[in-house]
Amino acid sequence: MEKQRLNALFVLILFVLDLTLLSLALPIAYNLRFNLLSRVSYFYVEPNEAPQFFPYYLTVSIVLTILWIILLVFSKAYNFKNLFSYYPVVNAITLGVFIVSSLSFFYRGFSYSRLVFILTWGVALLLTFLSRLVLYILRLTILGKKPLRILIIGNNEFARSIISSQRNRNYTEYETIDRENLDFSDLEKIVSEKDIQEIIVAGKISDDELLKLVSLKRKRSISIKVVPEGYLIFAKRISFDEISGIPLLEIELSALEGFQGYIKEALDFVLGTLGLIVFSPLFLIIAILIKLDSPGPVFYKHLRVGRYGKPFYLWKFRTMYKDADKILDKYPELKKEFEKEFKLKNDPRVTKVGKFLRKFSLDEIPQIFNILKGEMSVVGPRPVTYKELEKYGEYAEEILRVKPGLTGLWQVSGRSDVDYSQRIKFDLYYIQNWSILLDIKIILKTIPSVLFGKGAY
After folding, report:
1. Of 210, 80, 96, 54, whose CA–CA distance to 139 is shortest?
2. pTM of the entire structure?
3. What whole-number distance in Å separates Cα of residue 385 and Cα of residue 395?
4. Cα angle vertex 410, ends 406, 413, to 5°?
5. What is the pLDDT of residues 307-335, one digit of tens each?
6. pLDDT given for residue 72 in this prediction
7. Closest by alpha carbon to 414, among 163, 202, 176?
8. In the prediction, which pLDDT does 98 show?
9. Vertex 36, ends 33 and 38: CA angle to 5°?
10. What number of CA atoms fall less than 13 Å from residue 266's CA on the CB side?
11. Fewer CB in a 10 Å sphere around the end CB: N or C, the chain?
């Protein structure tokens, strides 16, 4: 239990640090506004006109600190696995300032400074970042820079998807073991020899095996996670119910089935318009480069399958030589590989400029027109051809319920390095668990994937 006590201690330290530092956020913001910024002519306030901190700002400071802590708890910022995740912290701090500042404007007995609330938001973010930095240094000093070693039981698609989506996490090492070759009684020895801190079971597990894992968790204080094989793609779209003491899982429809689907379409139009404005200077530059590099048209269109199976032409900048298919006929092995995966790492048909455009996904910019025409979405499943659709089998109908995307979960999880089975899993997961927040996350993750040319060819 030593490890659990140590983890609990780290959580307690972070909680105390947050509580202490967040209580200072508004007082610091108050002093910045009325003591420092008041020296600037634009923000100048007569000394005798500056509001007193007590009692109004002090009361707000206490209320805001308590609200922040409550929001941080509910956002699971104090779960050990989220200790160094800053995303729930930003959400909690922003929401807390918004609620308190909004309510303060309805209070007519005192006029609060809007700038103080803005400064409070910034100071709180800085202080919570510092508290996590202090905890990280403290933890590093005590435990050292040891990698998190994870044992995945199972060598199936789920295991490969987990490793693929987490491959960029620093200080994380994975060990995999075949489910058929494992005696759960040997797990304690394996955990001890390989210094495993977490076990993920990617597949079915019996009650007896589950009890052995529970026993192992008590002895070794390691994290145990089980992938519910039959429900993996539904994730958040599952609700829990009970009949006569029997736990039931109810599968719900994707949020895209309702009103939020219209919100997504409106966002697509807005983002598509902004994208057209931002990237319009590149159109001329890329067009000139393509023309100088090889003869042929600037744009290339290809028939793809759209929503509900409706065909549409996907637009790209041309990246191949003219008569590309004839070139591929000269390479039988490459042609066979292409017919299997519809991708080639060393494609002889691609021009010099085309390789550069593909590496940084610049060839896909014209798909903005597909988005504005309503044929594609900014984020969605990978657009496929009718021939590729055969590989989707029974999942094709489900995936075609939504528009294909310029980017998607498949792209930020490895792009061309992801095989078809994994692409299908990512697409199904995205459809079932869609939210505006998920779209924003994918868009933000796409930027480094594109800039570093990860998995593209």
Report:
1. 80
2. 0.52
3. 15
4. 125
5. 989 999 999 999 888 776 676 667 666 66
6. 93
7. 163
8. 92
9. 65
10. 6
11. N
Q: CB count, 10 Å around CB of 385?
A: 14
Residue 216 C-alpha from the chain's centroid = 32
Whether the bond into 381 is cis, omega within 30 of 0: no
Q: Give me the residues paired with residue 405 across strands.
A: 377
Closest CA to 432 of 457, 396, 401, 455: 401
- Mean local confidence (pLDDT), 373-388: 91
Distance, CA of 412 to CA of 442 (rounded, Å) = 7
Burial grade of 60 (CB within 10 A; 0-12, 13-18, 19 or more): buried
User: What's at 441, amino acid-wise?
Assistant: K
Residue 53 CB neighbours (<10 A) = 14
- Token reading at 358: 């593909």
Report yes or no: 422 and 164 within 8 Å, Cβ to Cβ.
Answer: yes
Residue (of 159, 162, 154) closest to 184 by Cα position:
154
The DSSP bridge pattern shows strands 198-202 and 223-227 to be: parallel
State which amino acid sits at residue 381.
P
Whole-angstrom Cα Rg for the chain: 27
Question: Which has the higher per-residue pLDDT, 451 or 197?
Answer: 197
The answer to whether 202 and 159 have CB atoms below 8 angstroms apart is: yes
Q: Which domains are assigned to the chain?
A: 2-143 (no CATH), 148-232 (3.40.50.2300), 257-451 (no CATH)
- pLDDT of residue 53 exceeding 70: yes
Q: What is the dihedral of CA 339, 345, 349, 350, to 10 degrees?
A: 140
Q: State the Cα–Cα distance between residues 238 and 243, nearest whole angstrom.
A: 16
Nearest Cα residue to 232 out of 376, 395, 77, 391: 395
Give 125-172 pLDDT, tens digit per residue.
999 999 999 998 888 888 776 677 888 888 776 677 777 666 555 557
Q: What is the pLDDT of residues 171-215, one digit of tens each?
A: 577 888 887 778 888 888 888 888 888 888 877 777 678 778 878
Distance separating the N- and C-terminal Cα atoms of the chain: 48
